[in-house]
């Protein structure tokens, strides 16, 4: 494993009660990279990023962020260290409008985007600034969920299935946004089943199956592995 990695996960095991979900996951993410966890439903992708965020109570192994071992840290300490998660369910507060949702999370470090900068990334949100969270379309809710964590100052973003259920035109907008975030210096770990979308933004891929990483593919070699990926993902 690369000693200069921003995030290093080694031998990660995780359980939900009696269910043993992760069986020794090893991944690393270097500063400024977009790395994707690919795999079918139930492969352990979401559990991996929730474990990194401290949201899974029972876990063993090593999770190192900027050289600090975080496996025993609570979620709030991990967030303050500079990691933010955008969950699959988005977590938009229906009683709050767009601006209130954006302003809700605390700033954990300097360097977060201002509300105006977020509106530059997502012009749709500026147009809907006074709309309640539940009045937004699925795509707008996803933009809001991503925008909200950009305010915090976190430098490592964990994005869980950001394109699920979205129209192709919105998926293209999410792709452009992730590319711009990468250019701005953010590091991103992306959970995704749609590897054709992932291919537009990712540097590397880890393929997960049965709670383990079974393959690692560099984006430069993606084309020669398409058949194998289709087999892994059951496409």
Structure explained in plain terms:
The structure is a single chain. The protein is of the alpha/beta class. It has a single domain (7-233), classed as 3-Layer(aba) Sandwich (Rossmann fold). Helix content is 31%, strand content 27%. It has 9 helices and 10 strands. It has a 6-stranded mixed sheet with strand order 6-7-8-3-9-10, sandwiched between helices. Strand 1 and strand 2 (19-29) form a beta hairpin. The longest helix has 16 residues, at 168-183. The two termini are 30 Å apart. The mean pLDDT is 91.
Defining traits:
235 residues, Rossmann fold, four-stranded antiparallel beta sheet, 9 helices, globular
List the helices and strands and how they pair.
Blueprint: E1 7-16, E2 19-29, E3 34-38, H1 45-52, E4 58-65, E5 68-69, H2 75-81, E6 83-86, H3 98-103, H4 115-121, H5 123-127, H6 138-150, E7 156-160, H7 168-183, E8 187-192, H8 195-198, E9 204-209, E10 212-218, H9 226-233
Parallel strand pairs: 3-8, 3-9, 6-7, 7-8
Antiparallel strand pairs: 1-2, 1-4, 4-5, 9-10
Question: What's this, in brief?
Answer:
The protein is α/β, with parallel strands linked by helices and 235 residues long.
């Amino acid at each position: 494993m690369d000693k200069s990695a921003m995030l290093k996960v080694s031998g990660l095991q995780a359980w939900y009660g009696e269910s043993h979900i992760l069986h020794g996951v090893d991944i690393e993410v270097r500063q400024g990279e977009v790395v994707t966890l690919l795999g079918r439903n139930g492969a352990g992708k979401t559990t991996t990023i929730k474990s990194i965020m401290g949201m899974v109570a029972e876990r063993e192994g090593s999770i190192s962020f900027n050289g600090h071992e975080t496996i025993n840290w609570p979620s709030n300490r991990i967030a303050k260290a500079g990691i933010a998660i955008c969950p699959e369910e988005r977590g938009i507060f229906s009683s709050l409008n767009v601006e209130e949702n954006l302003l809700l999370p605390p700033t954990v470090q300097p360097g977060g985007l201002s509300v105006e900068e977020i509106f530059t990334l997502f012009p749709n949100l500026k147009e809907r600034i006074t709309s309640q969270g539940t009045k937004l379309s699925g795509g707008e809710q996803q933009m809001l969920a991503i925008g909200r964590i950009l305010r915090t100052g976190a430098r490592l973003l964990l994005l869980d299935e950001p394109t699920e259920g979205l129209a192709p035109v919105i998926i293209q907008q999410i792709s452009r946004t992730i590319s711009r975030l990468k250019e701005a210096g953010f590091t991103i770990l992306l959970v995704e089943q749609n590897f054709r979308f992932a291919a537009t933004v990712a540097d590397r891929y880890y393929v997960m199956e049965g709670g383990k990483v079974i393959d690692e593919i560099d984006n430069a070699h993606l084309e020669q592995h398409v058949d194998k990926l289709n087999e892994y993902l059951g496409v």
